[in-house]
Amino acid sequence: MRPVGVLVGWIVLILLANTAIVYVLDVALRGQTAGGLLLAVAVPFLIMLINRSTAAEAVSRHAALCGWVAADPAGREWPWTDLRLRGTIRVLRAWSFVSEGFPITAGELKWTGNALAGAVEGETGEGVFVIVHLPAPLPSMAMRNRFDRLGDSPLLDRPELRRALLTGEIPPWTARGRTLFTIERRRTWLRPPAIEGAVHRALRVVELLAPAGDDLDQADR
Known about the structure:
Number of strands: 6
Strand content: 25-35%
Order of helices and strands: HHEEEEEHEH
Shape: globular
Keywords: Membrane, Transmembrane, Transmembrane helix
Transmembrane segments: 29-51
């Protein structure tokens, strides 16, 4: 089935399921059937599965249209690995592509037990990560929140960088050599705009760290 046909099919299923929810809740609240109470629980679960599936399908279509290359989560060393002192970190899926002249690796991960050591909001959760591969190394440094900065680089003293973090223009970030990465917690199913937005914000960090009068993407690669 073509992608448009798949999308239409999911929309029809969602509409039918929503109609079923209204009917089932009406029946259940009137106390007419015990089965109605069971369906009142089952149907929302079905809706959740449909929403997750449609979101995953949207991301897959977007990746294919944009020429993103799937990356093997188990086939590489991730830059946050040494942050983990306890808990778990698992990359669910990832893609490699180029944005604004920079090689990018972006995707979805989940963590438990504060395994990311403050590099993202929340001790446990799921989120979007972006890794920007830089043409020239940066000092090891990070900005986690308004009070937590790691490293002694004078770049951390830039008022525009601090302002961008405080206003939410950029997320917490970590730079190590030729790699800069961000991780943003997500609270809904991952869709293409969430990935594109995270990439834009990560590249904004790179822009704010660029030497005055220079662009990192113009440096020799």
